[in-house]
Structures are given as C-alpha cells and as structure tokens.
Amino acid sequence: MLEKVTTTLPIMLKWLFICVLIGIFSGSASAFFLVTLEWVTQVRIQNSWIIWLLPFGGLIIGLGYHYYGGTVVRGNNLLLEEYDNPKTVIPLKMAPFVLVGTLITHLFGGSAGREGTAVQMGGAIADQFQALFKLENIERRTLIVMGISAGFASIFGTPWAGALFAIEVLYCSKIDFKTILLSFIVAFVAYFTVEVWAVKHTHYSIPEVPSWTPTLLMWAVVASIYFGFAAMAFSRTTHFWGRTFSKYISYPPLRPVVGGLVLVLAIHFFNVQKFVGLGVPVIVEAFNNPSANFDFLLKILFTGFTLGCGFKGGEVTPLFFVGATLGSALSMVVPLPIALLAGMGFVAVFSGATHTPIACTAMGLELFGMESGWYIALACGIAYLASGSIGIYSSQNSKGVKYHLYERFRKRNLKNL
C-alpha cells in the first residue's frame, strides 16, 4: 500500500505542476489577447477609414497561413483531431498565428469572435509540455483537454463552463477522472491568472425572472426552438461560405482578399457597422431594449462570410450576439422579460452550434446567476436538440443524444415505409 502511494504521489504532483503552468501561461496569453483586442477595436472605431484595408489584412493572413502556417490552419478542428487520434504535437506557432490573424481581422473590421483564438493558444501551449515532461503520446489527450479548458475559462471569465466545455466538446470520449479533475483545476488557475492581470470581462444581468407557469413554459420552449434553428443557420452558413470559397478560388491567400473586398463594400454602402468586430455593445443593448428583427440574421451572414473566406477569430461571441439579439427581438411577442430572453438566447444558440448544452447551462449560471437557471437549462437543452447534427466544428464527434434520437426516428420512418 505504501509503495503504491509513493508511486502515485509524484505523478499527481507532476500533473498538478503541469496544470498550474498551463493555467498561468494560457491565462496570461488570454489576458494579453483581451487587452490587445480592445486596443485594435478602439483604433478601428476611432479611424473608420481603416475598414478599407480589410482586403489587405486578408492578404496578410492568407499568405501567412498558406506559406508558413499550413499545419495549423485547421484551428480548433486540429485540436479535436489530435485528441481523437494523437499523432504529432501541435506546433507552438499556432498561438502567434491565430493571435495575429484575429487581431488583424478585428482591426480592419471583420466579423469574428475570440474563443477560437484563446482555445487554440491554450491547446498549443499545453501540448508543448509533452516533450518537457517526457509524457507518453497518449497523454497528450489530457494536455489538449487542459489547454481547451484554460483558454475558454480565461477568455470569458467562466471557469466552470470552461472545464465542462473542454470535456463536452470532445463528447466525453476517452476522458478519465484524472483528466476531468485537471480540467477544472486548470480552468480556475487560468481564470485567476486573468484576474491577477486585472483584465475585466463584460458583465450581464437578468434582473427579473418570473415564476414558472404552463403558459410561460410553452413560450420558453417555442423561443428555445427558434434559438436551435438560429444555431443551425449559423453553422451551415459558415460551412457553406468555406466550401464556396474553396471551390471557386483555388489559391487560398486570395480568398480573404476577395471576401474582404465584398465585406468592405457591404459595410460602406449599407451602413452596417454594428455587425463588424465582436459586437459586444449590441449584445449589452439587447438586454435592455428590443433588437431589430433581422439583426441576428445579418450577424450570421457577416460572421459566416468573414470566417468562411479565411479570416481568423472565434465563433462563440458572434453566437452570443445572434442569440441575444434574437431573444431580444422575440420579447416583442413572447411574454417573458427581455433580459431573460436575451440571456436564454445568449447561451442557447451557443449550445446548439457546439453541441455542448451542459457547459452552456453552466456558463449561463456563471454569467446570469442561479435565479434564471431553469430557463437557461431548458433553452440550452431544447436548442441543442433543435439545431441539427452539424455544428461549427466539422471534426467534432457529434454522435450524442440527439444523434441517436434522429437515427431512431429515421429507422422507424423507413420501417413504416
């Protein structure tokens, strides 16, 4: 018994040490990213003419990835693929490539998010510890989970959701108790690292949460189905533009140039400045005043086009935008408080697009408080079921609960025929 303890204790201490290092490095990278992202956003706002340089920014991103970053161009999908079948350590250059690419996208007015950047930086940083600590190749799975957890938790200030997201986005595949525990520890280390750097996150609130009634339950279900459809539209739009640009423009560096030119003309002639960048001010406003009916659709279009043509960034904050503005617009017909509907949509569209209802429910509780918990959980669950089988990550194993429900329904219909 004593021999087993003396063997296990050093291993536990080693992993805890790795956990702390990943949390500190990933949290610091996210803190730096948040500060620089705010800076480039202010530069763009104060110099509206800079949007005309978006095609030039696209050329820089396209050339950089085509000639020097071919192995990391798959982004989050590379993390999922390496977790599923560990082969080669993720190059550390993934971190600076996605960081610079995302900052260029936001500086010149592309519509993108930030989660993809933080997750890729966290995953690339974490995977470097395999060689440093002489870990087995199969143990890279644990490192990748820790990197995803640290990146997500630190960029949004939601450690519980970050840890759960890292586990759930991988469909809990091949994950043991040690990995689950380390995922939570590294999430909190990364979260507190950002706090130490005194970098602030956006705060949202839902001041009014009505008690359950059969009528309100029915309306909440209807709204949640719409959130699921919005998630489906977002995922399919992004993949559609990616396929379209790949099909008609064979030289990859030209794709963001052409896409950037189209975006610039659309922004200039249609005066749609609020759909560029993260769109956080629009999200905040959606919690207080009804959004325009088509705001969520335009954000889907602009973000899908931006990412599909080759610009860099995440999808999650645009998903927040889509969900919050859709919920806000629905408040004109749905008899639920506007902030509650915006908050439900905020996390529910994210749930449907990433197939992570548990993590999204946790995020809703962290951001909005326990009072809205049942509404948040209902919205995330129903949006997940209503969003179809295609998510934003093409390499994700999406054979979860709804996959089996769809298969059972399909087989039953075929049998009846």
TrEMBL record:
Main location: membrane
Record's subcellular location: Membrane
Keywords: Membrane, Transmembrane, Transmembrane helix
Superkingdom assignment: Bacteria
Ranges that cross the membrane: 15-37, 49-68, 143-167, 179-197, 217-235, 256-276, 320-353, 373-393
UniProt membrane topology term: Multi-pass membrane protein
Gene Ontology MF term list: chloride transmembrane transporter activity
A Pfam family reported for this protein in Swiss-Prot or TrEMBL: Voltage_CLC
Protein known as: Chloride channel protein
Organismal lineage: Bacteria, Pseudomonadati, Bacteroidota, Flavobacteriia, Flavobacteriales
